[in-house]
Structures are given as structure tokens and as C-alpha cells.
């Protein structure tokens, strides 16, 4: 059984026991973290989002959080017996499921280097080129396997956008994990620079997000917020991502207002 949720689902621990084969994933994570092109993208993609548009973080910090939470979410779903179909239907090993998740989480926002608006559609060709090189460098896959892995990663990247329908459980994980980066640190820069849009203010209201095994579902997401503005993050962003993800029956969300002086919202359960 995995220990990766002992920190509230904040960080995937490669040395912990997991409810899935993790040897391939751990090798890929090492390659991702040391890849200079990926590092450059993660830095550059924040310029349009934060510096030019005044949005919340979409750079290396956001990507690290999404990747960690996606892998912890994946681990809990595997523990709960939830079936994954992406790798299986492509005829590649179960060990490739978390690789698909990790690669898609890492590359899902690189389209921001082109523009914030419609960034998901710019992410596809950029990630495709990067995956051609990366999958070849990893030397794990023959030509057919590389094509299948590339297709699954690109599908998961595309479907983090709510306008697209995830056709795999792996893609559903990316879609939900993207919305789990909602704590106040994400909006620190736009807030300090005077940003008072709903994305910034609602994120400032989120104190803590944890992911753990649920009593009546494989996954329980617990959110602590300090005022009613946080409802926007829970209802308009996280719930919108969960709806249509394929994970609706497997993930329960509980949000609690930790400040007793705000009686507008005390508890939300989804």
C-alpha cells in the first residue's frame, strides 16, 4: 500500500510502496527533471500567463504540484480498484499508465509560450515534437509503442480543457489534478501586484488541499478555505473539471470554511 498520501497527497514519493508498478515511472521522472528543454519550457510558459495576463501561476511550481497530485490521485484510484483503459487499449504494459500521467501533467500547459488564450491547442504540437525526442531518448519503446504512448499523452493534455471529453481514465486524472492546484500560493504574484480578479481572490481564500482515501469512495479531496470566495475554486473550477472526467463516482469533495465569522458558507460536499 502506498505511503504517498501520508503528506496529504502533496508529493509522490518514488521510494514508497505503490499500488502500481512504478519502476518505469521513476526512471521517466528522473529524465523529466533533468531535461533542459522541459526546464526551459516550464520557465517560459509563465511569462504570458503571469507577467502579461496577470493570471495565477502556470510555470514550474504549478506543473510540479499538478504532477505530484496526479500521481497521488492515480495511486489512490488504483488502490480502489478503478480500471484504467488508456495504456491497456493501446496494448502497452500497465507500468506505462503512470508514465502517461506524469508526461501529460508535465507538458499540459506548454502552449502558454504561444498564448494564454486557447493554450491547450498550442500545447499539442509543441508537446508532440518534444515527445518525439524524449521517448526516443528514453530508449524504452520501439516505434509502435512510442506512437501509442505519444498519442495517449497528447489525448490527456488535450482533455485537461473542459471543452474536450476525456476518453481514458488517465486523461481524467490530468483534468482533475489540474484543478487541485488551488491553494493561495498559486496566486501570490498577481495578488501582490494588485490583481483582484475572481481567480486571484478565490485562490487566496484556499488554505489547504489534501487528497486521501475516502470512506465511501477511493478518493476524498478535503479543502480548507478562509472565506466564501473560495467557493469559486471549488464549484466553478474543481467541480467543472470533475464533471465529465469519468471520475465522478470515484472522487468525493468536501470543502470547509475554517473561519467561523463567515456564515455564508460553512461546508460544501460534492
Task: Produce the secondary structure layout.
Elements: H1 23-33, H2 36-52, H3 60-79, H4 86-89, H5 97-107, H6 119-138, H7 143-158, H8 169-179, H9 188-192, H10 198-204, E1 206-212, E2 219-225, H11 231-242, E3 251-257, E4 267-269
Parallel strand pairs: 2-3
Antiparallel strand pairs: 1-2, 3-4
Helix pairs in contact: 1-5, 3-5, 3-8, 5-7, 5-8, 6-7, 7-8, 8-11
What is the CATH topology classification name? Answer: Hypothetical protein af1432
Helix content: 40-55%
Give the end-to-end Cα distance, rounded to a whole number of Å.
27 Å
Largest sheet: 4 strands, mixed
How big is the Rg? 18 Å
Number of strands: 4
H-E order: HHHHHHHHHHEEHEE
CATH A-level architecture:
Orthogonal Bundle
* Proportion of residues in β-strands: 5-15%
Short description:
With 270 residues, this protein is an alpha+beta fold.
Question: How would you describe this structure to a colleague?
Answer:
- With 270 residues, the protein is α+β, with helices and mostly antiparallel strands.
- It has a single domain (23-269), classed as Hypothetical protein af1432, CATH 1.10.3210.
- Helices cover 50% and strands 9% of the residues.
- Strands 1-2-3-4 form a 4-stranded mixed sheet.
- Helix 11 (231-242) links the parallel strand 2 (219-225) and strand 3.
- Helix 7 packs across helix 8 (169-179) and helix 8 (169-179) runs antiparallel to helix 11 (231-242).
- The protein is globular.
- It starts with 22 loop residues before the first helix and ends with a strand.
- Residues 185-198 have low confidence and may be disordered.
Amino acid at each position: 500500500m502506498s505511503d504517498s498520501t501520508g503528506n496529504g497527497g502533496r508529493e509522490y514519493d518514488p521510494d514508497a510502496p505503490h499500488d502500481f508498478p512504478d519502476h518505469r515511472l521513476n526512471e521517466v521522472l528522473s529524465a523529466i527533471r533533468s531535461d533542459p528543454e522541459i526546464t526551459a519550457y516550464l520557465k517560459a510558459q509563465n511569462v504570458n500567463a503571469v507577467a502579461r495576463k496577470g493570471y495565477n501561476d502556470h510555470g514550474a511550481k504549478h506543473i510540479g504540484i499538478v504532477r505530484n497530485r496526479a500521481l497521488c490521485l492515480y495511486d489512490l484510484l488504483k488502490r480502489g480498484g478503478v480500471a484504467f483503459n488508456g495504456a491497456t487499449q493501446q496494448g502497452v504494459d500497465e507500468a506505462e499508465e503512470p508514465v502517461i500521467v506524469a508526461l501529460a501533467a508535465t507538458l499540459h500547459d506548454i502552449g502558454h509560450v504561444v498564448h494564454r488564450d486557447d493554450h491547450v491547442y498550442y500545447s499539442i504540437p509543441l508537446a508532440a515534437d518534444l515527445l518525439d525526442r524524449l521517448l526516443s531518448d528514453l530508449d524504452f519503446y520501439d516505434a509502435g509503442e512510442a506512437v501509442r504512448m505519444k498519442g495517449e499523452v497528447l489525448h490527456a493534455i488535450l482533455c485537461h480543457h473542459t471543452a474536450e471529453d476525456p476518453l481514458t481514465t488517465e486523461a481524467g486524472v490530468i483534468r482533475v489534478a489540474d484543478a487541485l492546484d488551488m491553494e493561495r500560493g498559486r496566486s501570490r504574484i498577481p495578488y501582490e501586484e494588485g490583481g483582484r480578479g475572481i481567480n486571484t481572490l478565490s485562490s487566496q481564500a484556499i488554505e489547504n488541499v489534501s487528497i486521501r482515501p475516502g470512506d465511501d469512495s477511493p478518493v476524498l479531496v478535503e479543502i480548507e478555505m478562509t472565506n466564501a470566495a473560495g467557493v469559486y475554486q471549488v464549484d466553478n473550477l474543481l467541480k467543472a473539471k470533475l464533471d465529465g472526467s469519468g471520475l465522478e463516482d470515484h472522487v468525493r469533495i468536501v470543502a470547509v470554511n475554517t473561519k467561523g465569522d463567515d456564515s455564508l458558507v460553512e461546508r460544501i460536499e460534492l
